Amino acid sequence: MSLKRLIASGATVLGTFIKTPHPHVVEVLAASGLDCLCLDAEHAPFDRGDLDLCILAARAAGTPVLVRTPSNAPHHILNALDCGADGVVVPHVRSAGEARALVAAAHYGPGGGLERRGYAGSSRAAGYGTKPIPEHLAASAARSIVIAQIEDREALDEIEAIAAVEGLDALFVGRIDLTIALGCTSPDDPAVIAAAERIVAAGRAAGRPVGMFTPRAGDVPQWRARGASLFLLASDHTFLRAGAQQLRHDAQLAG
Predict the structure, then answer these.
(1) Comparing C-alpha atoms, which of 159, 158, 152 is closest to residue 175?
(2) Three-state DSSP class for residue 92
(3) Residue 118 three-state SS
(4) What is the DSSP string of 73-131?
């Protein structure tokens, strides 16, 4: 089952962020059994070449890969999808209009006043010129995932309208940025929890899957019970640090 269909089914999907722009990291984590990986081009130093190599590594391993784009700019969305990513997580979606624009940028078709995805048959996604146009159009529509990250006060004011935008595959709670946006200093602040619950509720009411980052993996069951289903947790940095700390502890050198 494709990642797009898996997310749409409401099944629990577990992935992690990759912050190190190197295909070796993707190769290692692709063998971890996670459902997907997310290359964090918003907060880590991925350039176009880095994304290309890391997406290549994920595809070679048969592991679905998302890209958190640096912004909602159409060229960022285009690049990730042309390189062969399964989808994009677009940060700071604040309105239904922005949500409609990112859906348009991720799919081919008539513009209707919005900038649509530019077509290139020479990309990896198009099989480097081997897919006829109708085949690539159909494959892209069936595969490309569009996830709107909700992390601003303005988005909370429009959350029901955003959740209702046709073509969005999921909402994603950007809980840390949401914490800052609400003037809080902890993602466990009651105001942040209430905002996250409101986003999940809006998604459920619109029949839209909702994902999130949580600071603790142990929080997944409680959010799953509330209706969230896509979890992108921790990162390669987290695993490196935790592994090194565990090694020191196991060697009885803690302290």
Answers:
(1) 152
(2) coil
(3) coil
(4) -HHHHHHHHHTT-SEEEES---SHHHHHHHHHHHS-S--TTS-PPPP-TTSTTTTTTTS
Q: Is 90 helix (H, G, I), strand (E, B) or coil?
A: strand
Torsion angle in degrees (nearest 10) through CA of 177, 183, 186, 191: -100
Please state, as a whole number, how many other Cβ atoms lie within 10 Å of the Cβ of residue 19: 17
Average pLDDT rounded to a whole number, residues 47-59: 98
Residue 26: closest CA among 44, 1, 5, 8 = 44
Active-site hit among 22, 24, 43, 249: 43
- Report residue 216 as tokens: 């603790």
Active-site residue 43, yes or no? yes
CA 239 to the chain's CA centroid: 19
Q: What pLDDT digit, counting tens, does each position of 65-104 carry? A: 999 999 999 999 999 999 999 999 999 999 999 999 999 9
Claim: this prediction has a pTM higher than 0.90: yes
Q: Are the C-beta atoms of residues 41 and 20 closer than 8 Å to each other?
A: no
Rounded distance, CA 245 to CA 248, Å? 5
Kindly tell me the burial class for residue 201, based on how many C-beta atoms sit within 10 Å of its own C-beta (0-12, 13-18, 19 or more).
middle
Residue 247: C-alpha distances to residues 25, 118, 221, 244, 255 (Å): 20, 49, 28, 5, 12
The reported pLDDT for the residue numbered 207 is 98
Tokens 């959740």 correspond to 163
- Which of 170, 171, 84 is CA-nearest to residue 126? 84
Q: Which amino acid is at 81?
A: L
Q: Express each pLDDT in 134-192 by its tens digit.
A: 999 999 999 999 999 999 999 999 999 999 999 999 999 999 999 999 999 999 999 99
Q: In one letter, which amino acid is 143?
A: R
